[in-house]
Design brief:
Strand order of the largest sheet: 1-2-3-4-5-6
Helix content: 55-70%
Number of domains: 2
Order of helices and strands: HHHHHHEEEEEEHHHH
Number of helices: 10
Largest sheet: 6 strands, antiparallel
Structural class: alpha+beta
């Protein structure tokens, strides 16, 4: 059962959090309009509003949700401390640990909302936002690739010399089938075409089958066949991972790993970041309460300053650890949880010091 003071803290926390988001988003929109005014003048108003801004605002808000959480906690808790409300709460017999309950409940509301947004709601919206950016701002779509080699099924390795997704055509194709360590057959083709649903057409092809000391050769001008790959498996544009829901991201990573594809680091980082950001809401809440629940020299301004340094430091630290995963220094899972682990130690230290003060 929530007490009156619990409801008061929850209302203050979530209200300040929403206010901080609205304020920052309003400033962001003004800067964004000023930066992309040429692109917005070219795009239809409906596309600008519904395809870009309605999808950009939730994305931006969710990306910086830990920062907004921290700022909200620091701001309203410092104000409560300056008004001696914290002293009154603790003097009434409530323990410091008990006072943390409404804070952690509010953090749970924010973390669960953030997770649902990042896992299921924002990715489809990102697809529209990124498509708008590619159409009217700067086209960053990758439409061609070369020298693709990947395992398409157990014992089958495909190679594509060149492929263009605009025409759905490629050249210099080969498909090697192995029986253990022995090459059992090889399909080569001058060109190939993507027909959808794993259906491919190979042109000017040659099929060699190796049976002990015999070799059977078949050739032709055109052949329709099933190959369990599609262009999206090997043509990856920047930010593609942001357009996938959590189940889609998990399936994609598992499929690409099985095929021996090396360029899945960004997808693994995105996957673990969505979980790590949820834990950050609790960690930064504890740090924020521990820092701002006591009066200090300098008042609320000092608390907000310290809070901003720590919150921006967290975001910067997470950016740095991403490079560890990309460069192969650590796994994506470890890299994304390093900031949380370090800040959890800081949170525990500050909490113990504040609760004894």
């Amino acid at each position: 059962m929530f007490r009156i003071i619990d409801r008061y803290i929850i209302r203050k926390f979530l209200g300040t959090y929403v206010f901080a988001i609205v304020l920052i988003l309003a400033i962001t929109v003004m800067f964004d309009i000023n930066e992309k005014v040429d692109a917005f003048s070219k795009a239809p108003l409906s596309a600008t509003v519904f395809d870009y801004f309605l999808n950009f605002l939730p994305y931006f808000a969710n990306q910086f949700s830990p920062l907004f959480t921290f700022i909200a906690v620091i701001f309203f808790t410092s104000k409560m401390a300056d008004n001696s409300e914290i002293i009154a709460i603790l003097s009434s017999g409530m323990s410091y640990r008990r006072m943390m309950w409404p804070y952690l409940f509010s953090a749970a509301v924010i973390a669960s909302s953030s997770f649902m947004l990042s896992a299921y709601i924002i990715p489809p919206a990102n697809a529209k936002r990124i498509d708008f950016m590619n159409t009217y701002v700067k086209d960053k779509r990758v439409t061609a690739t070369s020298n693709v080699q990947m395992q398409v099924a157990p014992g089958e390795v495909a190679y594509i010399g060149d492929f263009n997704i605009r025409s759905n055509r490629g050249s210099r194709f080969s498909l090697d089938s192995f029986d253990g360590q022995r090459l059992s057959s090889r399909l080569t083709a001058m060109t190939l075409e993507w027909k959808g649903d794993y259906r491919w057409r190979v042109n000017n092809y040659v099929i060699r089958e190796f049976n002990d000391d015999r070799e059977i050769i078949r050739s032709g001008t055109s052949l329709d066949t099933i190959i369990p790959i599609e262009p999206a498996d090997f043509i990856i544009s920047k930010n593609d991972q942001e357009t996938m829901t959590l189940p889609e991201l998990s399936r994609y990573i598992e499929k690409q790993r099985a095929r021996g594809v090396a360029n899945v680091k960004q997808f693994e980082i995105e996957y673990h970041t969505r979980y790590a950001m949820c834990a950050a809401a609790f960690i930064l809440t504890i740090i924020g309460v521990s820092l701002s629940s006591r009066k200090i020299k300098g008042g609320m301004g000092m608390n907000i300053g310290i809070g901003l340094v720590l919150s921006f430091g967290y975001i910067l630290f997470m950016t740095v650890t991403q490079s560890f995963a990309i460069n192969g220094i650590t796994s994506p899972a470890v890299a994304m949880w390093i900031p949380n682990a370090i800040y959890a130690v800081i949170a525990m230290f500050l909490y113990l010091r504040a609760s004894r003060g």
